[in-house]
Every structure is written in structure tokens, then in C-alpha cells.
Amino acid sequence: MKRSVLGMLLLACTLITVPVWADTYNVDPDHTSVTFKIRHLLGYVNGTFNQFEGSITYDPAKPELSSTEGAIDAASIDTRVEQRDKHLQSKDFFDVETYPKITFKSTKILEATPEGGKLEGLLTIHGIEKPVVLDVEIHGVAKDPWGNERAAFTATTKINRKDFGLTWNQALETGKLLVGEEVRITIEAEGIKA
Fold this sequence. Notes:
By secondary structure, this protein is mostly beta strands. It has one domain: Lipocalin (Beta Barrel), CATH 2.40.128.
């Protein structure tokens, strides 16, 4: 009887401690984009980061367990104007020699549904780490023509660049500032199952 009870307790403990496994998808740089938009003078400037890496852990049956982390090469910033890109890489902005990476690591996902949710995490830019929330759309999982399983997501957020120490600006004749503070970020991510 004692052995039977002990066996049942061990089985129960084993079942309780078995981790929930989800699939990991490595970000495919050929089918992923990291873009941003910020006000400049009267209009807006759009830009991208061309070099990055990351992974997404995702289980379609349990989207609330999703997580992600990634790193962007700050020097890969591209606004299609070489002189502006060099200025953005300098100490006035990203200071890429001192802070070569922009990183994100998720901490939890809220309001998770099969279609998306709000992904909380820690974003580090210019050596400063701040919590951010990304609005995530889940586009699903499918096999490509070569048999690879892929998952696709869109994530958007807004940040204030000054929160991350990117404070450079220039006053205009009108009294307004040359560069806006709010940055709109969009990530179109597609991953290949590891």
C-alpha cells in the first residue's frame, strides 16, 4: 500500500513538473524587416535596420506561452541617406562603437489569442534598458515549398527616443525642433522552425 501511494505521488510530481514544450523559430533575415518612422522637420523619415538575429518560441495551441528575443546591429541603420546614417551612428545618437547592439527580450504576453496579443519585454538601446509593450499579430504556421515549417508575426510599438538617451536635436526658426521624439517601430518577422 505504501509503495502504491509513493508511486502515485512520484507520478503526480513528474506530471506537474513536465515542462510545456513549444517550437522555436529562428528569424529568417530574408523574410523579416525591422523598420521605423520618425518626424523630421515637417514630414517623416522611414528607416530600416538591415542586420539582426532572433528567435521566437511559439505554440499555436498555447499562444500565452510565446516568447522572443533578438538583437539588432545598430550600425546597420539605413535611411537611404549616407550622411544621415553616419550621423545616426555617431555619438549624437546610437554611438554604435560603444553600444553596437539593440536588444529585446520578452517577459510575458498579455491578452493572448490565436490572432495575437500584447508582448511585454525589455528593450535596450544606447545601453539603456526600458520596458516596452509590442502589439503582436499572429499570422500562423505553414510549410514552405521546400518542407520548412515557418511562422509569421507582425509587431508594432511606439517609443520616445529620449527615454533611451537619444536626445540630440536642433531648433528651427519656427521654434520647433528638427527631429521628433516619438519613434514608431514595425517588425515583420518570419521564422523557420529550428
